[in-house]
Amino acid sequence: MHSNSNSSGISRRTLIRAAGASAAVAAVGIPGRLFAADPIKVAAVYTVPVEQQWVSRIHKAANAAKDRGDIEYVYSENTANNDYERVMREYCEAGHKLILGEVFGVEDAARAVAKDYPDVAFLMGSSFKPDAAVPNFSVFDNYIQDASYLSGLVAGAMTKSKNIGMVGGYPIPEVNRLMNAFMAGVKEVAPDAKFQVAFIGSWFDPPKAKETAFAQIDGGADLLYAERFGVSDAAKEKKVLAIGNVIDTQADYPETVVASALWHFEPTLDKAIAEVKAGTFKADDYGVYSFMKAGGSSLAPLGTFESKVPDDVKAKVAEKEKAIKDGSFTVEINDAEPKSS
To answer: Which stretch is the leader sequence (predicted)?
Structure first.
């Protein structure tokens, strides 16, 4: 994987236009007009490596759209916050029509860029809401509280000590809501469960996450909520269980990761692509496309733990999943910082 942490210029991976899409070029007669058959030029600006959980889901969805021939896709990873605005502007100047990324630390700069390029659509991970003053800037977030709640039901059944460790990146809404939903699921099955909650102050620091998890295991935790990379490594070493977040890592930790709340970015991105193609993209909150009923999240298969999770809990998970999808049950979205109990 390349990196573009240097400030001299953008290091990009240029991906080849899907076969057959170039045939559509012959149909273009009016300069600047976008035909439905033309792939949209999409660029993404990431502050972390594309392997990082959260960003990997955006990257996966973008590659799927590229493979379908809907978009051309280039990206920059490991972009420093103080370099983010420049990279965004370079992609705009290069003619990209949809810019993706996460702007949690660079909100003001990103919205300023969007104002300067009104003909470019921006779809950005953000803790804030869309603003009518920047009509081409839409926001999204991983609202996967539905799947997090289901993973909590499983965790409540699997902890014996009723002491659960939770390691997060930062206590911001996108993390807090998942932790709170998980905790609500746990308490439904194990009302007397206690939680050790810690934040490492980084989105990507596996050694620090691992060290924090070790401390929680020393404090009696026999199951860990792995919001960050590094936590499952600690769980594996100490032979305790873990619950995954955003991606399914059970293949790497077959005896450790019981279940994972998965984020599927495809519904979010596909909605934006359709709006750009139709010329109807506007400032909007795309968060709802991460909900389970929109196909934006799911509970990973139990896999190696299929026979180890009690049948009554599996039945409860199935019942709650059905209720979430048909709208008869709503998982609370609680953005408040979770506390140890």
So the answer is: 1-36
Instruction: Classify residue 63 as left (phi > 0), alpha (psi -120 to 50) or beta.
Output: alpha
For domain 21-140, give its CATH number from 3.40.50.261, 1.20.1440.230, 3.90.1150.10, 3.40.50.2300.
Answer: 3.40.50.2300
CB-based contact 15:66 (threshold 8 Å): yes
CA gap 299, 317 in Å, rounded: 9
Mention the CATH class of domain 145-264+295-326.
Answer: alpha beta
User: How confident is the model over 118-128, as pLDDT tens digits?
Assistant: 999 999 999 89
**Exposure on the CB side of residue 115, measured as CA atoms within 13 A:** 11
Q: What is the pLDDT of residues 89-111, one digit of tens each?
A: 999 999 999 999 999 889 999 99
- Report the 10 Å Cβ neighbour count for 35: 12
**pLDDT tens, residue by residue, 239-276:** 999 999 999 999 999 999 999 999 999 999 999 999 99
